[in-house]
Amino acid sequence: MEDNEDDEVVKKIMHVMRNAPHGTIYTYEGLEMILIMAAYDQDISVAFIDDGVYALKKDQDTEGLEIKGFSKTFKALDGYDVEKLYVDQISLEERGLNEDDLLVDVEVLSSTEIGKMMAEQDVVVHH
Amino acid sequence: MLHTINKSPFGSNSFETSSRFFQPGDPVLFIEDGVYAVQTNNKYSGTLAKVQKNNPVYVLKSDLNARGIGNIAEGVISIDYEGFVELVEDHQVNSWL
């Protein structure tokens, strides 16, 4: 990749969400990182694998936990030009979920298809 | 793309999940507690054998030694830190946590 003095190098960066949203801080921190990177006009994609798919579950209501939920932030990614959201089909099926259970528009893909995209990235970050 | 796995397969699904995403030819390297996956005759030997059909598999020797693991599956290549660095130089890294 050529570097130039205007810092206009756009890197392909894939974030991989692998944890459920509320038990740890990984998902929240990952989301913050995505928003920061998006501000630098990078080519961002996000893959939801394993318990990561729970981050996109509709109807999350954290009021009883007295914490501010962040699931709605995923809906806002679109506004930051982060539009490539991929969900691993097996991970969804294993959890008895389907695309209608998710709060944003995503592409549901096979592990092989997501694996191919991973291979094309400059950076892959797991959360 | 080099896939590194640093969690025991018994406590984390990193290995099983990641194995679905490997592209043929991608090197796979077990480090830290990940090395338990390559011990012979464990629950994950079948998964490992399947991966080995399409991918070269490496394991970090120091991490094996530290854990007293001598019997490793046939075909798994034991490397030192220098070998680790060479792999990282040659490939983009996908660090499955």
Please describe the topology of this protein.
The complex is a heterodimer of chains A (127) and B (97).
Chain A: E1 12-17, H1 26-38, E2 43-48, H2 71-76, E3 84-88, H3 89-94, E4 107-109, H4 111-119, E5 123-126
Parallel strand pairs in A: 1-2, 1-5, 2-3, 3-4
Chain B: E1 2-5, H1 14-19, E2 28-30, H2 45-54, E3 57-60, H3 61-66, E4 77-79, H4 81-90, E5 93-96
Parallel strand pairs in B: 1-2, 1-5, 2-3, 3-4
Description:
The complex is a heterodimer of chains A (127) and B (97). Chain A has 127 residues and is an alpha/beta fold. Chain A has a single domain (12-58, 67-126), classed as Hypothetical Protein Ychn, Chain: A (3-Layer(aba) Sandwich). Helix content of chain A is 27%, strand content 19%. Chain A has a 5-stranded parallel sheet. In chain A, helix 1 links the parallel strand 1 (12-17) and strand 2 (43-48). The mean pLDDT of chain A is 93. Chain B is α/β, with parallel strands linked by helices and 97 residues long. Chain B has one domain: Hypothetical Protein Ychn, Chain: A (3-Layer(aba) Sandwich). Chain B has 4 helices and 5 strands; from the N terminus they run βαβαβαβαβ. A 5-stranded parallel sheet of chain B has the order 4-3-2-1-5. In chain B, strand 1, helix 1 and strand 2 (28-30) form a beta-alpha-beta unit. Chain B is globular. Classes of the chains: A alpha/beta (127), B alpha/beta (97). The A-B interface holds A 18, 49-50, 88, 90-91, 111-112, 114-116, 118-119, 121-124, 126 and B 1, 13, 17, 20-23, 26, 92-97.
